[in-house]
Design a protein that fits this description.
Keywords: Membrane, Transmembrane, Transmembrane helix. By secondary structure, the chain is an alpha/beta fold. The protein has 9 helices and 6 strands; from the N terminus they run βαβαβαβααββαααα. Strands 1-4-3-2-5-6 form a 6-stranded mixed β-sheet, with helices on both faces.
């Protein structure tokens, strides 16, 4: 990875990126009160699972139950952190969503170039002018064009400075197409376990089972093997039906034994009546 000069405002603040994890060292985070987390290695020392939630103020009233489930998760599981990734264009919109929430958040001042939702008539071309600590945040377009590639599944040198991810940049890595969108990241293995996770996965009747799976570094996504296991008898019967059909079609009526069996059964039944 090429060496990058440390911005003047970050000299002496290596705690912002002093983690070997390729994701967490690229996030500029704030605690629930809005105070910057200045030593991520210490803060996340006991954490194993990150719940990355990309959301917006638009439609927030319709998913308050989901928000309660996330807050419950953040309080119940000490090895997890919920990180809110605002896709809004105004700080007050993010503040409205985060009011009373026990989640962490990505800093808002990162020049993210999100398109506004529900207000097309306004001119948003100026965008954000204030950038946190003068850093050059990695934007969505740069990730999509491969200007900078982030290699997961492995550790990085925690002493090297790397450009932080903007909120828009992170949504590209999360494969966000609309909000709400949730991704699960496993810190011990430095990998995304799941993206576009259903919000029903966080319901009280589901979360204990799902969190145990995530904490173990596994995914709750449906796999082909799981589908085959659950449908094995159905698939077996389907296979036998296909074989029977082919045998009758190419082998002749002598292989069409089912009508003979049915006639025999009917004869026995008629004989008992």
């Amino acid at each position: 990875m090429p060496s990058i000069d440390i911005p003047p405002d970050l000299v002496g603040q290596s705690g912002l990126y002093n983690s070997p994890d390729p994701l967490i060292r690229r996030l500029r985070l704030e605690d629930p009160s809005g105070k910057s987390i200045t030593n991520i290695s210490k803060y996340f020392a006991e954490k194993e699972v990150l719940i990355l939630y990309a959301g917006s103020e638009y439609g927030e009233n319709n998913i308050r139950g989901f928000h309660r489930d996330l807050s419950t998760l953040a309080q119940r599981y000490k090895s997890a952190s919920v990180i809110y990734v605002s896709t809004d264009v105004l700080p007050r919109q993010a503040d409205n969503v985060l009011q009373g929430k026990s989640w962490l958040r990505m800093t808002f001042f990162d020049n993210s170039d999100f398109a506004p939702v529900g207000e097309p008539e306004k001119d948003w071309s100026v965008g954000m002018e204030e950038v946190k600590r003068g850093e050059e945040f990695l934007q969505a377009g740069e990730i999509e064009m491969g200007v900078e590639k982030i290699q997961f599944d492995q550790e990085e040198n925690e002493n090297d400075y790397v450009r932080p991810l903007s909120r828009a940049g992170l949504t590209v890595l999360m494969n966000v197409f609309s909000t709400p969108s949730v991704a699960v990241y496993h810190l011990p293995t430095h990998t995304f376990l799941a993206k576009n996770v259903s919000i029903s996965s966080f319901k009280p009747e589901q979360i204990d089972k799902n969190y145990k799976i995530w904490r173990g570094g596994e995914t709750t996504s449906v796999k082909i093997a799981d589908i085959i296991e659950k449908m094995k008898w159905t698939l077996l019967l389907l296979l036998l039906a296909v074989i029977y059909h082919l045998a009758v079609r190419f082998g002749g009526k002598e292989y069409d034994f089912i009508p003979k069996i049915m006639n025999g059964i009917n004869g026995r039944l008629n004989g008992k009546i």
